[in-house]
């Protein structure tokens, strides 16, 4: 079979396998390929003289010694604590108190590393030629086999391509149907990701590894073509960057301790008899004449504070968490304060700020339903929103109309999303820097509370100069870029110097002519009109019934995952596919109860790390068996800790004679005995 016949065969198989539309998208290249022994010509031009020396051997060397992306693992010597003491330490904690106390978090298990079950990520279509040769020559004394690597040690192969012409070339050289059949026989997963746009390609890669095959993130082994195009070079850089797939996937898991506390806070907030508003989408008749200003506490805020003081009454101002102190200190009246943190320190800071500025209570608070239950009482008007991936959001799914797009990771993300939800399509960003020009000046001098920032990552700034940031702040920026990309009618304008932000325009608002044009004809919308669609709805009785149903779902989750683990005698690709269902953040099916989603969201951070340790103990059948036993003990311990805390919440709700207005972390702890 010559290369043209092979290509036609591959095209027919792909169309039958992935469908007409998808195959047409990735098979649109029309280059004329000629393969003559080791030489390759495309459209009459020689592109490879010797395929083996130019492609196969360099990739084989990488297969033998790949660059690895691995998640860090928790280890601890703290396994001897009493479960009641652990439960008390979890209440209001910002640390991961649960995971470090589990039996499988012992250093004896965590220190292991799985040398088998390799998950290869291949950048560039031609890398697949090396794997094909490896499969055909297994048992011979070739480069790879002499290095000790066998096909049986490969768990999966994910091929990533941005150039359809390069894929076209591969399909002239390899029988893809035969290769995939070989993978199935040898229990090797194979997946192909093709996308020409860099940002969409990165999102497809991220979604595949976090939502479809999350266990492969335990270790990704990277190989790449010698000749990468600019898009795959950018993807390679992103994969290994400090804000790349490792950090982002880790952040997307949430924290079990955090999820437990959000359930506690949300249960109290929803369980009270008071009626709070819930954020609902609004609309403005004249979007051009109405403008929102979203304020964050980046250092550039200070430089523009006088301009804001002069013009604040012409705009609707959303203050993001800590920036509110800077605004109050400069006598700037903001319309909304947006908060998404559940940390108890936020309550302490706001209480202190209210003593200093009594008009704080006049500002409408827009906050997550998971904030410290003492915070709403500091304000005259409160509007709740939901965080889309939180356990409490699934538990109280009847309020899903108030769910934001991402609602994080910081309050500034929530401010932008809230402003858009209320109808603003034009948003001006002040102090939204995501970094700083000077590391010694990381935020506004009058910003509320402490906020240690390392700012140890030099990146390109929006004014063409280097600024300093850190992965957490880049995540904030990335989330805003995602939101602005999804909602294409949103127009973002910013001023000041900070990290680059796509989908936005930078202006110098301190330029008198620019300011004059910007302010001209702006009409401020009243808060009453903005919130007219928001509804007042609270059902304490419904809240009371939630916890028992959640506990039943939690028990089912724990039993099911322990049974799934117990069935397996080794680590394999089919096992990984089963485990995806225990880590997925959304509905596994249209009929799945929301209580099951809530329990899975609570558990998945700890479960991910426990499975990582289980994976690293899978080299030996005996070690895997022991680790499975400790996995079961760990799952039971997590369930017990959660049940102890929820029982304390139920007792408190039953015995509180002040409508739960006397809530505090210490009060809850008293009911843990």
Quick tags:
20 strands, five-stranded mixed β-sheet, 45% helix, alpha/beta, 673 residues, sialyltransferase cstii, chain A
Give your account of this protein's structure:
The protein has 673 residues and is an alpha/beta fold. Among the domains are: 3-72 and 116-252, no CATH class; 276-536, sialyltransferase cstii, chain A, CATH 3.90.1480. Helices cover 45% and strands 13% of the residues. The strands form four sheets. A ten-stranded mixed β-sheet has the order 19-18-15-10-11-12-13-14-9-20, with helices on both faces. A five-stranded mixed β-sheet has the order 4-8-5-6-7, sandwiched between helices. The longest helix is centred in the C-terminal third of the chain and has 35 residues, at 621-655. The protein is globular. The N and C termini lie far apart (76 Å). Residues 279-438 form the 6-hydroxymethylpterin diphosphokinase MptE-like domain. InterPro entries: MptE-like.
List low-pLDDT spans: none
Structural class: alpha/beta
Q: Taking all residues together, what is the mean pLDDT?
A: 91
Please give the order of strands in the largest beta sheet. 19-18-15-10-11-12-13-14-9-20
Q: What percentage of the residues does DSSP assign to strands (E)?
A: 5-15%
- Here the CATH topology of one domain equals sialyltransferase cstii, chain A
- What radius of gyration results from the CA coordinates? 28 Å
> What gross morphology would you assign?
globular
Helix content: 40-55%
The number of distinct β-strands equals 20
Through-space gap between termini:
76 Å
Q: Report the sheet with the most strands, covering strand number, pairing sense and barrel closure.
A: 10 strands, mixed
CATH architecture of one domain: Alpha-Beta Complex
Helical segment count: 27
CATH class term of one domain: Alpha Beta
Organism: Prochlorococcus marinus (strain MIT 9303)
InterPro entries: MptE-like (IPR002826)
Protein name: 6-hydroxymethylpterin diphosphokinase MptE-like domain-containing protein
Pfam family, one: MptE-like
């Amino acid at each position: 079979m010559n290369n043209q016949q092979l290509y036609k065969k591959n095209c027919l198989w792909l169309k039958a396998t992935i469908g007409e539309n998808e195959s047409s998208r990735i098979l649109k290249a029309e280059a004329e390929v000629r393969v003559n022994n080791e030489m390759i010509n495309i459209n009459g031009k020689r592109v490879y003289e010797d395929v083996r020396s130019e492609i196969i051997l360099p990739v084989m060397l990488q297969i033998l010694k790949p660059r690895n992306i691995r998640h860090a693992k928790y280890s601890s010597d703290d396994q001897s604590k009493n479960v009641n003491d652990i439960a008390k330490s979890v209440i209001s904690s910002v640390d991961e108190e649960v995971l470090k106390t589990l039996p499988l978090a012992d250093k004896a298990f965590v220190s292991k590393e799985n040398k088998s079950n390799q998950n290869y990520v291949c950048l560039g279509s031609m890398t697949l030629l090396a794997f094909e040769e490896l499969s055909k020559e297994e048992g011979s004394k070739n480069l790879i086999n002499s290095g000790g690597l066998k096909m049986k040690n490969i768990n999966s192969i994910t091929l990533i391509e941005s150039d359809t012409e390069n894929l076209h070339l591969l399909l002239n050289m390899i029988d893809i149907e035969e290769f995939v059949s070989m993978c199935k026989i040898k229990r090797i997963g194979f997946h192909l990701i093709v996308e020409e746009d860099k940002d969409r390609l990165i999102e497809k890669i991220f979604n595949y590894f976090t939502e479809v095959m999350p266990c492969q993130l335990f270790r990704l082994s990277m190989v790449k073509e010698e000749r990468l195009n600019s898009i795959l070079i950018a993807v390679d850089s992103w994969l290994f960057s400090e804000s790349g797939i490792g950090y982002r996937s880790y952040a997307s898991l949430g924290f079990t301790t955090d999820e437990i506390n959000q359930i506690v806070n949300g249960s109290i907030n929803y369980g009270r008899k008071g009626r709070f508003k819930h954020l609902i989408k609004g609309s403005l008749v004249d979007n051009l004449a109405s403008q929102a200003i979203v304020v964050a506490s980046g250092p550039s805020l200070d430089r523009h504070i006088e301009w804001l003081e002069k013009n604040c009454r012409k705009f609707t101002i959303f203050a993001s968490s800590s920036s509110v102190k800077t605004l109050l200190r400069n006598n700037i009246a903001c319309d909304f304060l947006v908060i998404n943190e559940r940390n108890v320190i936020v309550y302490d800071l706001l209480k202190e700020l209210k003593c200093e500025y009594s008009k704080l209570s006049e500002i409408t608070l827009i906050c997550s339903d998971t904030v410290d239950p003492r915070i709403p009482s500091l304000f005259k008007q409160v509007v709740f929103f939901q965080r889309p991936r939180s356990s409490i959001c699934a538990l109280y799914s009847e309020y899903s109309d108030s769910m934001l797009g991402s609602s994080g990771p910081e309050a500034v993300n929530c401010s932008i999303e809230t402003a858009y939800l209320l109808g603003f399509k034009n948003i001006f960003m002040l102090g939204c820097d995501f970094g700083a020009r000077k590391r010694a000046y990381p935020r506004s001098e009058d910003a509320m509370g402490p906020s240690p920032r390392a700012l140890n990552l030099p990146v390109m700034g929006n004014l063409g100069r280097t600024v300093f940031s850190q992965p957490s702040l880049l995540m904030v920026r990335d989330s805003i870029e995602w939101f602005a990309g999804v909602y294409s009618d949103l127009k973002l304008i910013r001023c000041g110097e900070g990290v680059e932000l796509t989908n936005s325009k930078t202006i110098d608002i301190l330029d008198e002519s620019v300011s004059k044009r910007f302010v001209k004809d702006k009409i401020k919308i009243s808060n009453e009109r903005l919130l007219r669609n928001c509804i007042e709805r609270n059902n304490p009785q419904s809240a009371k019934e939630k916890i028992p149903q959640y506990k039943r779902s939690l028990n089912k989750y724990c039993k099911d995952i322990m049974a799934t683990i117990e069935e397996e005698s080794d680590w394999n690709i089919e096992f990984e596919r089963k485990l995806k269902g225990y880590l997925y953040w959304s509905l596994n099916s249209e009929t799945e109860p929301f209580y099951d989603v809530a329990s899975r969201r609570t558990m998945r951070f700890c479960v991910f790390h426990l499975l990582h340790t289980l994976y690293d103990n899978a080299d030996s059948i005996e070690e895997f068996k022991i680790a499975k036993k400790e996995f079961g003990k760990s799952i039971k311990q997590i369930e017990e800790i959660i049940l102890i805390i929820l029982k304390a919440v139920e007792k408190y709700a039953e015995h509180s004679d002040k409508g739960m207005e006397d809530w505090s972390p210490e009060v809850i702890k008293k009911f843990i005995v």
